[in-house]
Amino acid sequence: MRKGRKIPQRTCIGCRAVRPKRDLIRVVRTPEGAIHLDPTGKQSGRGAYLCPSAACVELAFQRKQLERALQITIASDTLEELRSELEAYHESP
To answer: Residue ranges per domain, the chain?
Structure first.
């Protein structure tokens, strides 16, 4: 009997729910220090995963979980850029 393929699991830094990697959005800190979304999940750098819901994203920002996970202090203008990237990601099909 053959087993099915293993599905990678990741934890959302906002709500702490464990979900399949494909269901979450990856935020990456590149080696240059830039922070942005990684829709492919393959960019080099330190990453953190978030549920696609706006509530989880806001919870992660309020609790500074994103800063903790990426091990960097994030400026408020960078957070606003990240929010706009997330909104654009939600609007795309």
So the answer is: 9-91
pTM of the model: 0.87
How far is Cα 8 from Cα 88, in angstroms, rounded to an integer? Answer: 26
Query: Residue 11 and residue 19: Cα distance in Å, rounded?
Result: 6
Length of the chain: 93
- pLDDT tens, position by position, 14-71: 999 999 999 999 999 999 999 989 988 899 999 999 998 888 888 998 999 999 999 9
pLDDT for residue 86 = 84
Return the CATH class of domain 9-91.
alpha beta
The DSSP code sequence of 1-62 is -PPPPPPPEEE-TTT--EEEGGGSEEEEE-TTS-EEEESSS--SSEEEEE-SSHHHHHHHHH
Report the C-alpha gap between 30 and 50 in whole angstroms: 17
